[in-house]
Every structure is written in structure tokens, then in C-alpha cells.
Specification:
Blueprint lengths: L1 H14 L14 H12 L4 H7 L8 H14 L3 H27 L9 H12 L9 H38 L5 E3 L5 E6 L11 E10 L4 E4 L8 E4 L5 H7 L7 E6 L19 E11 L29
Length: 316
């Protein structure tokens, strides 16, 4: 401890003579030293951040420092703060928001033009209603157009998946051992269980293997460990929920799920939009809480039945 105190005392003494060309005040006291050290400490990781996240050419650090000092000099000036905030927001819009929206329209019939994007952004802030009467109206048009473009894009790219699924299920329905439900779900009983049938809100334990109609295995409970997988029956795709709430415990079924009862237009790893799915499912158990047991409390002085003795009669 004495050694540490000696080092701190030496640092403070040395700091008292420090006065760099760029420093506006000398480092004199212990608080000066720790404040200065804190400032240096908070630059850790800044250079990589400026390079990777802010897109700053780190050979231009003198310019960065000049901007930093300029902000400190005028930080109490509300006009300057608004001006500086414009720089900050422009950086975020240019480097994050614009590339994101351009990527969302990638390979669609529409393209996001940078100049028109910025014009719309600035006109909204000016409350200019020349093109759209309200920001909400512009937002509704944007969202509707994006949805339409993505739908057309998915149809172009993944429409064959839908057709392959429809064809497979139509052929599969001809198998006399396959049950076809009004929803379009199909199933084949491999082992008939005799246990309880779960409710949609109950947690089930299952083993399964999932395949695409071309036979590609995309998931299996065995990939997640030796034990059955547990989840609530209504927290999975619609086709699973419908099948599980008809299966007695102990059953093994193959279920054939049309894309609209699976993930539809969403992409899930190996599962491309509009894919029909096949699952081998074994319902192992229903995870229900143990029933509460009722016990008769032991007799205590407080609950014992008291039998009154007849009073002794006085002798005459």
C-alpha cells in the first residue's frame, strides 16, 4: 500500500511540471491527474470506431480534433448545437438508413434514388406538402409499395417452391393411408398412441425430424440433444399446432404441411419462402404440473373436538 501511495505521489509531483503545447491548463493536483487520465482512457477503441462505424479516414485525425474542439467551444450555443446535430443525423441517414432501404428494394421493380430520398427527408422537415399532403400519407404509400415489391420479388424467385409443394401434396393425398384435413394439413399415422391429447396452451415434449419436399433434412430434435424438445403447442407454426392438438401421447405421425400453414413468404434458413414441409413427429408426453394433494391435518388442541363431562351432582 505504501508503494502504491509513493507512486501516486510521484505521478502528482511529475504532473505539476507538465504543460504540453496543446494543453490549456497545467496538470497540478491529483484531481488534475485523474481527470487527464480519464480523458485518455475514454479514447480507447475510438480510432477503430471512427474507421469502421463512422467512415472516418484516420489519417485525417487533425481535422477530427479540429471539429471536436469546435464543438466544445460552441457547445452552449443553441444555434451551433442544432447545426452540429444536422451533421450527426446526416451521417446516420447516409451511412445506415439509406443503405438499409436501398437493400430492402434490391432486385425489385423499384430503386431508391439517393437524391430523391434526401429531398423527401428535408421536405418533410420543412413541412413541404408539394408531393404528399402528409408524412403519414407518404409513409403509407412507401409501406404499401415495399410490400408489393417484396411480394412480386418473392413470387418471381420462389414461386416454383409453391408449385412444387402443391404438386407434392396433391400426389400425397392419393395415398389411402394419408388423412387430408379441411385446412389442407395432411398426416399419416405411424404409431397410434393411447395417451391424452394436449390442449393448444399446454407444453408438449416431442421428437421430430423436418424435411423439404425434395427430402432435404433441415432440422431434427436429435440436433439439439438426446432429450425430447419442449414447447407450448400454440407457439409453433399453424400446421404443428393443428396436428399436436389431435395426437394422443405415444403417437408417431408424419405430417405434411402446406406453405400457408408453415412459414409462408418468410425465409427460415434452409426453408425458402412458400415451401411445403414434412415432419416425422413423436408426441412423447404432455408437461403438466403434478396434481395438488390434500391431507387431513393432524388433531391439535386447537381443532380437537372437546367433549364436555357432565357436572358432578351434589350429594343431598
Amino acid at each position: 500500500m505504501k508503494h502504491v501511495k509513493s507512486i501516486l505521489a510521484l505521478i502528482i509531483m511529475m504532473s505539476a511540471t507538465f504543460n504540453s503545447a496543446n494543453a490549456q491548463t497545467s496538470v497540478v493536483t491529483r484531481s488534475d491527474s485523474v481527470s487527464y487520465a480519464a480523458g485518455m482512457n475514454y479514447t480507447i477503441g475510438l480510432i477503430p470506431y471512427l474507421s469502421r462505424q463512422a467512415g472516418v479516414d484516420t489519417t485525417k485525425m487533425d481535422d477530427f480534433i479540429r471539429g471536436f474542439q469546435e464543438y466544445l467551444k460552441h457547445s452552449e450555443d443553441t444555434t451551433f448545437r442544432a447545426y452540429a446535430a444536422g451533421f450527426d443525423i446526416a451521417s446516420q441517414v447516409s451511412n445506415r438508413m439509406l443503405p438499409d432501404v436501398q437493400n430492402r428494394f434490391k432486385d425489385t421493380q423499384d430503386v431508391i434514388d439517393k437524391d430523391m430520398f434526401f429531398r423527401g427527408f428535408i421536405d418533410a422537415l420543412h413541412k413541404d406538402t408539394t408531393v404528399f399532403k402528409t408524412v403519414d400519407g407518404a409513409g403509407a404509400f412507401f409501406q404499401a409499395t415495399l410490400a408489393e415489391d417484396i411480394e412480386l420479388k418473392n413470387e418471381k424467385l420462389y414461386g416454383p417452391n409453391r408449385e412444387a409443394g402443391v404438386k407434392f401434396l396433391a400426389e400425397n393425398a392419393k395415398d389411402t393411408s394419408v388423412v387430408v384435413l379441411p385446412s389442407g394439413l395432411q398426416y399419416k399415422v405411424l404409431t397410434a398412441g393411447t395417451g391424452d391429447i394436449p390442449k393448444a396452451t399446454e407444453t408438449v415434449k416431442v421428437r421430430y425430424e423436418g424435411r423439404l419436399v425434395d427430402g432435404t433434412v433441415f432440422d431434427a430434435s436429435s440436433r439439439h440433444g438426446d432429450q425430447p424438445v419442449s414447447f407450448r403447442a400454440n407457439q409453433v407454426i399453424k400446421g404443428w399446432t393443428e396436428a399436436l392438438t389431435m395426437m394422443p401421447v405415444g403417437s408417431k405421425w408424419t405430417i405434411f404441411i402446406p406453405q400457408e400453414l408453415a412459414y409462408g413468404e418468410k425465409e427460415q434458413g434452409q426453408i425458402k419462402p412458400f415451401s411445403a414441409l414434412i415432419f416425422d413427429v413423436e408426441l412423447v408426453d404432455i408437461d403438466r404440473p403434478a396434481p395438488a394433494t390434500t391431507t387431513t391435518p393432524a388433531a391439535t388442541p386447537a381443532n380437537k373436538k372437546v367433549t364436555k363431562k357432565p357436572a358432578n351432582k351434589k350429594r343431598k
